[in-house]
């Protein structure tokens, strides 16, 4: 080994932090995250009645939203409820048409969209965990600003040019 040369397997100079800033370098996306996002499609479903008092001011039929992710193995539903987050892998055939099922049940469904790839940042986003915030997080940084389920539905229905449809 020569003087000044890094040892085998050692990071190159500057890899441990950004020069002069003392910040960690951005790490590449792990293969398991790339594989998880490959081929996924995202649908958003809107509906709901006022089962909680604070939902009554929201527009009827647009008091809640949740996401359904499809991949080659089947469906995963991500649904924020009052006080907890439900993530469920559905026991249905991979070819099952879940968006059509939701439409028949009276929900408004938008999609498919391509979920945003995982990406890190210096600080996490500081926002309350609402159904709209969760759906916007799945859509990624190009998601339109919205505070209510109806606002998100309207923004996605009318000109979501920054969101990548599948």
Structure description:
The protein is an alpha+beta fold and 166 residues long. It has helices spanning 31-37, 98-104, 131-139, 149-157; strands at residues 41-47, 64-71, 74-81, 84-89, 108-113. Strands 4-3-2-1-5 form a 5-stranded antiparallel beta sheet, sandwiched between helices.
Helices and strands in order:
Layout: H1 31-37, E1 41-47, E2 64-71, E3 74-81, E4 84-89, H2 98-104, E5 108-113, H3 131-139, H4 149-157
Antiparallel strand pairs: 1-2, 1-5, 2-3, 3-4
User: What percentage of amino acids are in beta strands?
Assistant: 15-25%
Question: What sequence of helices (H) and strands (E) makes up the elements?
Answer: HEEEEHEHH
List the domain count as a whole number. 1
Q: What is the strand tally?
A: 5
**Main β-sheet: number of strands, strand sense, barrel status?**
5 strands, antiparallel
Give the number of helices: 4
- Report strand order across the widest sheet: 4-3-2-1-5
């Amino acid at each position: 080994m020569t003087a000044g040369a890094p040892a085998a397997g050692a990071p190159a100079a500057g890899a441990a932090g950004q020069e002069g800033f003392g910040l960690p370098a951005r790490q590449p996306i792990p293969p398991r995250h790339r594989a998880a996002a490959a081929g996924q499609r995202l649908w958003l479903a809107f509906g709901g009645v006022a089962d909680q008092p604070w939902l009554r001011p929201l527009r009827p039929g647009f008091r809640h939203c949740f996401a359904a992710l499809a991949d080659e193995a089947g469906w995963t539903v991500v649904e924020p409820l009052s006080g907890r987050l439900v993530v469920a892998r559905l026991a249905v055939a991979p070819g099952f048409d879940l968006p059509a099922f939701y439409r028949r049940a009276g929900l408004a469904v938008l999609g498919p969209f391509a979920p945003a790839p995982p990406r890190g940042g210096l600080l996490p986003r500081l926002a309350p965990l609402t159904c709209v915030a969760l759906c916007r997080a799945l859509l990624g940084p190009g998601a339109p600003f919205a505070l209510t389920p109806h606002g998100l539905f309207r923004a996605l229905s009318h000109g979501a040019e920054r969101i990548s449809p599948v």
